[in-house]
């Protein structure tokens, strides 16, 4: 079965073709970051309009790379939510229109399930059950995953998401938007021992996170050190990154211990962070646990994870067409496969 996947929940237009026999045949991403940079964040109306411009050309590129035609597509999966309403409507409209025109079923995909299952696009892929850490721009959650659609929330952030903390701290340091990758790059040349930043909720005894205090601590440092030179900026980045990696690593280990599971799966944009990967790999090696990641290019938003999640949910495909955008949508409400 050949599944076309469309992602348009925020500021990336993603399109992919996933074949249940042949695997991922093609995927394309257009990031709108450059367009939103001058506003310091995503402008929803601009995002929707850009998705409209990009989605069909990207679809054509995927089809041509895979040597397929629209008529070969067996089902169309799209991100139905959660996300920006107008942006979601673009993917929903295109998917439903294509489905109607081709008389092929459509599948609503939950964006976070897409992220969560993206490590299954890597080899070797993790077997169920596993603990999943979802660390993205909008979420920081630990889940016990026993199968597709069987997600038990173990803990989550009580305030900012990890990616949000990266981006907000980067902004305080004058690194632009979204500054996560830039902050991480600068941290490589910094000294993580010069400044000591807090490890919020490290010993809270539960699996929840809190990152807003860390951002405030960065703000305080920036003010104290002002005017800030390049070395100091890099040292703050290094201290910040070390604090985040430390907290996330310890909470992941605690989640594995609590569930008695041996496998840890990382998903979402912050999963691209090299220091985090190094910290988790080292901790896992010492305890003979296994850690799995999505391919680097599939950590942030993409169509491949949506096509894949859609392929896993073919049984829920429907051939009644409508708009079906769900800006708010609880992951726990998904049916098991
Ligand atoms: P959600 O999926 O929760 O709705 P989102 O789709 O915006 O949020 P993703 O696309 O998964 O989130 O990830 C984007 C986030 O990942 C941004 O906050 C970005 O700064 C962060 N990020 C990306 N690469 C890195 C990196 N190397 N180090 C740290 N953070 C990173
Ligand atoms: Mg994005
Ligand atoms: Fe995302």
Automatic annotation (TrEMBL):
Catalytic activity: L-threonylcarbamoyladenylate + adenosine(37) in tRNA = N(6)-L-threonylcarbamoyladenosine(37) in tRNA + AMP + H(+)
Compartment list: Cytoplasm
Cofactor(s) listed in the protein's UniProt record: Fe(2+)
Enzyme superclass (EC): transferase
Enzyme Commission number, as recorded: 2.3.1.234
List of residues binding substrate: 134-138, 167, 180, 273
UniProt remark on cofactor binding: Binds 1 Fe(2+) ion per subunit.
Domain annotation Gcp-like: ranges: 24-308
Pfam families registered for this protein in UniProt: TsaD
Primary localisation category: cytoplasm
Binding site for Fe cation: 111, 115, 301
CDD domains named in the record: ASKHA_NBD_TsaD_bac
GO function term, MF aspect, one: tRNA N(6)-L-threonylcarbamoyladenine synthase activity
Presence of keyword Cytoplasm: yes
A Gene Ontology cellular-component term: cytoplasm
UniProt keyword annotations, A-Z: Acyltransferase, Cytoplasm, Iron, Metal-binding, Transferase, tRNA processing
GO BP field: tRNA threonylcarbamoyladenosine modification
Domain of life (superkingdom): Bacteria
Family: Belongs to the KAE1 / TsaD family.
PANTHER family: TRNA N6-ADENOSINE THREONYLCARBAMOYLTRANSFERASE (PTHR11735), TRNA N6-ADENOSINE THREONYLCARBAMOYLTRANSFERASE, MITOCHONDRIAL (PTHR11735:SF6)
Function according to Swiss-Prot or TrEMBL: Required for the formation of a threonylcarbamoyl group on adenosine at position 37 (t(6)A37) in tRNAs that read codons beginning with adenine. Is involved in the transfer of the threonylcarbamoyl moiety of threonylcarbamoyl-AMP (TC-AMP) to the N6 group of A37, together with TsaE and TsaB. TsaD likely plays a direct catalytic role in this reaction.
This protein's name: tRNA N6-adenosine threonylcarbamoyltransferase
Protein's gene: tsaD
């Amino acid at each position: 079965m050949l599944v076309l996947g469309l992602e348009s929940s925020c500021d990336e237009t993603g399109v992919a073709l996933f074949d249940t026999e042949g695997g991922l045949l093609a995927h394309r991403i257009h990031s709108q970051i450059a367009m939103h940079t001058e506003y310091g964040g995503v402008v929803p109306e601009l995002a929707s309009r850009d998705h409209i411009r990009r989605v069909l050309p990207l679809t054509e590129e995927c089809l041509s790379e895979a040597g397929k035609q629209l008529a070969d597509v067996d089902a169309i999966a799209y991100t139905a939510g959660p996300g920006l309403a107008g942006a979601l409507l673009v993917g929903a409209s295109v998917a439903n229109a294509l489905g109607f025109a081709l008389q092929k079923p459509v599948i609503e995909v939950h964006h976070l399930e897409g992220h969560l299952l993206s490590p299954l696009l890597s080899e070797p892929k993790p077997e169920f059950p596993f603990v999943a850490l979802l660390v993205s721009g909008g979420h920081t959650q630990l889940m016990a995953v026993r199968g597709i659609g069987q997600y038990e929330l173990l803990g989550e952030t009580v305030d900012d998401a990890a990616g949000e903390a990266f981006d907000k701290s980067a902004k305080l340091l004058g690194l632009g938007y979204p500054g996560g990758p830039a902050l991480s790059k600068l941290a490589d040349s910094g000294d993580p021992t010069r400044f000591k930043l807090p490890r919020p909720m490290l010993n809270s005894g539960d699996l929840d996170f809190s990152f807003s205090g860390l951002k405030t601590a960065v703000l305080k440092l920036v003010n104290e050190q002002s005017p800030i030179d390049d070395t100091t900026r890099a040292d703050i980045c290094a201290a910040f990154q070390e604090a985040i990696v430390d907290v996330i690593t310890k909470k992941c280990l605690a989640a594995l211990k609590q569930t008695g599971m041996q496998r840890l799966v990382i998903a979402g944009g912050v999963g691209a962070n090299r220091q985090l990967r190094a910290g988790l790999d080292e901790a896992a090696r010492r305890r003979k646990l296994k850690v799995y990641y999505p391919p680097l290019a599939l950590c942030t938003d993409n169509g491949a994870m949506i096509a894949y999640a859609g392929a896993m949910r073919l049984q829920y495909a429907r051939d009644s067409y409508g708009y079906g955008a769900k800006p708010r949508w609880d992951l726990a409400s998904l049916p098991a496969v």
